[in-house]
Amino acid sequence: MKAYVLGSYGSPDVLQLRDVDRPAPGPGEVLVRVRAASVQPADWHLMRGEPFISRLMPGPLGLRRPRITILGADVAGEVAAVGPGVTSFRPGDEVFAMTAKGGGFAEYVCVPQTELAPKPASLTFEEAASVPLAAGTALLALRDQGGVRPGSRVLVNGASGGVGTFAVQLAKAYGAHVTGVCSTRNLDLVRSLGADEVFDRTKEDFTRGGQVYDVLLYIAGNRSFAECRRVLARKGVCVLIGGAASRWLQPAGHVFATLAASAFVPQKAALTNVLACQNNRRNLEELTALIDEGRLTPVLDRVYDFEDLRAAVRYQEEGHAPGKVVVRVGQA
């Protein structure tokens, strides 16, 4: 099969399109013929080997070269074969998944059946591939860490990005009053997703808006927890999703400092890590139900052909994509 292999750290040019052996599904695994895969900020962080401190920790980054050789966590496609013990899927089924071990930037990938779910019938493969990691992160942030319920007041900082576009819609589906923060060019997009109010981050400081929120989803920002507390209710929660990037420590430094500071005040900080979730299939099924009800719709910024994957990663790395960036691997 064809796959983009990551053999060293560097720019998107280090992703080499090669012929490699097609994987065989093991016990409890499903071999998926990939039709589409989404490109995540995590992909270019792994590609760059940043932040450098991560190379000293257990995980996908090795000290001199990556331990994971094929990137891509989100995929949508068709079941090509199943391994021993798999009873929920059969060849030909249309599925989507978030696989913690990557492998999506290839024509085939093996996925544990616990990370796999039937593809929403109303979505294309490209749309379905945009859902698992971003929407799953928003789901955990709002449902589990934030405890959002009808009447909650939710502020989404970074409302026009991959996670943010799903978060706005999910918060509205849960009955919350939603305020989004984004740049000028994305104000209409965030309003169209259902936001009750929108801050233009280029003109307004959301931490000094005078309003109070039960939940703040803080996506890839660099404001301090002390600043965020200004807009949090006394028992409010600041849910951290990513953080400002630097080559050495961030976002780990910002995240750890925020979590530590929250131990001494009534407001709390929480960290969302969808890759550590053990019930991803259940989460995908919950997201599918909302999609089928018309309450959750993926926002695709750009769709690239498989041959242009390096360009897709380069564009994602710029950090200005509204919604999701997806690669079309094959046609059904």
List keywords for this structure.
332 residues, 15 strands, alpha/beta, 7-stranded mixed sheet, 25% helix
Topology (SSEs and partners):
Layout: E1 2-6, E2 15-19, E3 29-39, H1 41-48, E4 74-82, E5 94-98, E6 108-112, E7 116-118, H2 125-129, H3 132-145, E8 153-157, H4 162-173, E9 177-182, H5 187-192, E10 197-200, E11 213-219, H6 225-229, E12 232-241, H7 252-261, E13 268-271, H8 280-292, E14 300-305, H9 309-318, E15 324-328
Q: Explain this structure to me?
A:
By secondary structure, this protein is α/β, with parallel strands linked by helices. It is 25% helix and 27% strand. The strands form three sheets. Strands 3, 4, 5, 6, 7, 14 and 15 form a seven-stranded mixed beta sheet that branches. A six-stranded parallel beta sheet has the order 10-9-8-11-12-13, sandwiched between helices. Helix 9 (309-318) links the parallel strand 14 and strand 15.
* N/C terminus separation: 17 Å
Q: Which stretches of 5+ consecutive residues score pLDDT under 50?
A: none
Write down the secondary-structure element order. EEEHEEEEHHEHEHEEHEHEHEHE
- Helix-and-strand structural type: alpha/beta
- The number of helices is 9
- The chain-level mean pLDDT equals 89
How many beta-strand runs? 15
Strand content: 25-35%
The helix content, as a percent range, equals 25-40%
Give the CA-based shape.
globular
Largest sheet: 7 strands, mixed
**Rg over CA atoms:** 19 Å
